[in-house]
């Protein structure tokens, strides 16, 4: 699918920015990647492989042509994002739609200094952005409906599944659910109920595989809401409900156990095992998504 007239700019050449550019270039979009750090920019170019030939890389946020869209994908820091989106607005035409790829920061807060906040919205892509289909589309309080419609149409052209939120809440939808799950997982580890390997097995090969085919609400419909209600009545009082991070998580971070990037989190990692896992994950994600899509199409037929 080619979109020869579509022009896009990605600001931030980290992991998400790189996969966003890779996604767009593969769909024939004319894409420019901007990052003030030449080393980060070069790492982005190298990681794209052959696809980098269709991408322009630059350290300067200067628009020689008027892009249809600019996606800010810098670090998840509100002050930095505010500064970058303000710089973007000063560099583009009033017709350009500006998006922030944030995981859950209030859209109005990021765009608080914009002159035209009505053309600004959140588009939360999931890593890896060139594979995972869903994108949370999060309008700010000033975002025009036509801007949301245009953004969704563009995302569909890229093969994405835009899911529009009615209200912007911290963490949006996916991260709220993910953190609720992790709060209970950490609580179970702290209580000694289960070891990390067994917990991962239970989640991955029970509710995990089912949710690849049915969302949680569809799954509850299939199981029966009356059954869910009966379980909820006795289980909810025993679930973790703390309003601060688990002590186990605080301890691990304090010890430098930051996960695969540091060599140890819940598991031990080497550079080789991390790279191998990420490669296998990309390949498996593509197969799972293909199966889930087939399953959906059969359900509609």
Automatic annotation (TrEMBL):
3-hydroxyacyl-CoA dehydrogenase NAD binding domain spans which residues? 8-166
Residues annotated as domain 3-hydroxyacyl-CoA dehydrogenase C-terminal: 171-269
Q: Which residues cross the membrane?
A: none
**What species does this protein belong to?**
Halomonas casei
Which keywords does UniProt give here? Oxidoreductase
Q: Pfam families per the record?
A: 3HCDH, 3HCDH_N
**Which sequence ranges form a coiled-coil region, renumbered to this chain?**
none
Signal peptide stretch: none
Q: What is this protein called?
A: NAD-binding protein
In terms of SUPFAM superfamilies, this protein maps to: 6-phosphogluconate dehydrogenase C-terminal domain-like (SSF48179), NAD(P)-binding Rossmann-fold domains (SSF51735)
């Amino acid at each position: 699918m080619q979109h020869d007239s579509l022009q896009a700019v990605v600001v931030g050449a980290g992991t998400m920015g790189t996969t966003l550019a890779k996604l767009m270039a593969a769909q024939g979009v004319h894409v420019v990647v901007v990052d003030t750090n030449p080393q980060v920019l070069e790492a982005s170019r190298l990681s794209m492989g052959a696809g980098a030939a269709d991408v322009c890389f630059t350290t300067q946020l200067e628009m020689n042509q008027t892009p249809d869209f600019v996606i800010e994908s810098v670090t998840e820091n509100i002050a930095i994002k505010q500064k970058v989106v303000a710089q973007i607005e000063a560099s583009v035409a009033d017709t350009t739609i500006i998006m922030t790829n944030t995981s859950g920061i209030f859209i109005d807060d990021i765009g608080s200094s914009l002159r035209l906040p009505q053309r600004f919205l959140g588009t939360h892509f999931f890593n890896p952005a060139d594979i995972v289909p869903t994108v949370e589309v999060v309008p700010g309080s000033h975002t025009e409906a036509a801007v949301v419609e245009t953004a969704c149409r563009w995302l569909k052209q890229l093969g994405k599944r835009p899911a529009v939120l009615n209200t912007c809440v911290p963490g949006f939808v996916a991260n709220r659910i993910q953190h609720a799950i992790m709060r209970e997982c950490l609580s179970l580890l702290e209580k000694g109920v289960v070891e990390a390997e067994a917990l991962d097995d239970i989640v991955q090969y029970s509710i995990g595989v089912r949710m690849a085919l049915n969302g949680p609400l569809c799954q509850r419909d299939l199981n029966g809401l009356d059954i869910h209600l009966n379980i909820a009545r006795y289980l909810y009082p025993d679930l973790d409900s703390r309003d601060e991070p688990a002590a186990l998580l605080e301890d691990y971070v304090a010890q430098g156990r930051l996960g695969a990037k540091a060599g140890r989190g819940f598991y031990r990692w080497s550079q080789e095992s991390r790279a191998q896992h990420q490669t296998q994950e990309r390949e498996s994600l593509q197969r799972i998504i293909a199966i889930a899509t087939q399953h959906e199409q059969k359900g509609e037929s």
